[in-house]
What does this fold into?
Amino acid sequence: MTMTSAMPRARERKSRTRTKHVSQLPAIKLTQLLPSHIDLMEPLTAAIVCVDCKTWCPITGMLGHVQKLVPHHTGKAGEAAAIRCRSSNRRVEFDMTIPEWRQALADAVTEASSRTATMVLPKVFSPQTDRTLRARAERTPAGRVADWNAVLPRVAAADKKRRAVPAGNTPVEGPEVPADTLHPKRPAH
It folds into this structure.
């Protein structure tokens, strides 16, 4: 396809949108945001989470006098309606340095890691153990005494049978039982 003078030609566009418009809302201070909602790893491409729509927005004008959020929409691209966020072009005040931000981020990570669950949960009881433990928990001291009193006659009868000497003489055949304790000696090496 050849170019003719009648063909329309696109004019050159600016590489970046630059506007002097600044939002009337009060400036966002970095100390008011969570350290995890700030990204200053590469200071020239800094970004923060917008306080209104909770999306990550780059900060423009990092080398200039006024740093502000870039104009952005509230919804996801291609899914929601293109409604401009009210925090577009809102000024950002850098009231903390990058080392202070890194220290705050490290402290936040340490605090979050201390909140993670480290408790080991016990194994589930078998049904028999569970029944036994529940029965123990439901028993009262009076109930335990009553149970013990119910068992006492059988215990006394068993003790009486154990103490009884069998009728008859001692066996004649067989070795004698030693009366004193034997202490075997070890052979010397």
